[in-house]
Design brief:
The chain has 336 residues and is of the alpha+beta class. Helix 7 packs across helix 8.
């Protein structure tokens, strides 16, 4: 993904102005796009929107872009969220079909309505009203992935406590008479993108976008679109974004928790570690990570359950994004 990128070893912000972009994972093209927008407009919100837009269109990012991760019915949808850490305004869309620029629709929700989130087909209808064009997010690749999943008895899946048993069938399902009745096989990890930008005035913004967990139940909404879970920003304090098992992450509002820790004086790394320590992993295990920036532009993160995790960072004077490696703890249900 980034043969020319240097490995970032410093957690501390240099003495220059705190202008930077970070994002989860080595999705460096998104980092570049965000930093270019920040340099051009000086707006942290413009930056995270531009970076997320790049990721939504980048077919190499299977866990983010269109044409990947169909749901049980074979359809690709988007979740996205933007937050302005100065005004505390938020816009989000969830389970939205047929609109490629999901993060820009989230911005329209924030700036063109009094709401925080729109969902499903009605979110797509709103997008069309705002001038966006409908186009299928499905591709030949997503259709082939879905057919292969169906031919493998719909494994893995997210069903449990249903009949017929979810571990070897595709339904249609009905409630089982007993709990924990043949849950579907567990799914693989999900690596979505969360971005933070800081502008020269200390303004902070976060942006998140994802195509959701593969083979999810139609209508599912994960942490990405949920303020405080997928991301949170507060100017003068800091911002954080998350990635991983969104169905677990959103139960703990980990991005909000990390920012709250920074408000009490914790470093970004310590704040992320403290937030993740609150998670009680389920028996099947847990994978999740946080990346954070404090008000001084210092960067840190923490990780549980992944084999590895990196934060992509770009500041003034850097010809290319730098990669901050973050050590990962085991994600099994032992105490951390």
């Amino acid at each position: 993904l980034c043969g020319s990128c240097q490995v970032f070893q410093m957690h501390q912000q240099p003495a220059s102005q705190p202008v930077l972009v970070i994002n989860t994972w080595p999705f460096v093209n998104a980092t570049r796009a965000a930093f270019a927008a920040l340099s051009r407009t000086g707006s942290a919100l413009d930056a995270v929107e531009a970076g997320c837009l790049q990721a939504e269109a980048d077919q190499s990012l299977e866990s983010v872009s269109y044409g990947h991760h169909p749901d049980e019915a074979g359809n690709v949808t988007f979740d996205a969220m933007l937050m302005n850490g100065v005004t505390m305004e938020v816009g989000a869309v969830a389970a939205m079909p047929d609109i490629l620029e999901a993060v820009s629709v989230a911005r329209a929700v924030m700036e063109r309505t009094g709401h925080t989130m729109l969902v499903g087909d009605r979110a797509a209808d709103f997008a069309v009203e705002m001038g966006f064009k409908r186009r299928s997010l499905n591709t030949d690749r997503s259709a082939a992935d879905w057919r292969q999943w169906r031919s493998g008895n719909c494994q893995p899946n997210f069903r449990r406590n249903v009949q017929p048993p979810a571990d070897h069938s595709c339904g249609p399902y009905r409630p089982a008479s007993s709990r924990d009745s043949n849950p579907g096989n567990r799914r693989l990890g999900h690596d979505t993108i969360g971005m933070v930008a800081m502008d020269a005035g200390g303004g902070l913004a976060v942006g998140t976008t994802t195509n959701g967990a593969a083979h999810r139940v139609p209508g599912r909404v994960g942490d990405t679109a949920v303020v405080g879970a997928g991301g949170y920003a507060k100017a003068g304090v800091g911002a954080a974004v998350g990635t991983g098992d969104g169905d677990i992450l959103m139960r703990y509002l980990l991005a909000f928790a990390a920012v709250s820790e920074m408000s009490l004086g914790a470093s970004p790394e310590a704040a992320c570690r403290a937030a993740l320590a609150s998670v009680r992993p389920p028996p099947s295990g847990f994978h999740g990570a946080l990346a954070a920036v404090d008000a001084d532009g210092n960067v840190g993160g923490a990780c549980i359950g992944f084999d590895s995790f990196q934060i992509s960072v770009m500041r003034p004077g850097m010809p290319e994004p730098s990669l901050l490696p973050v050590p990962c703890s085991p994600g099994r249900p032992a105490r951390l």
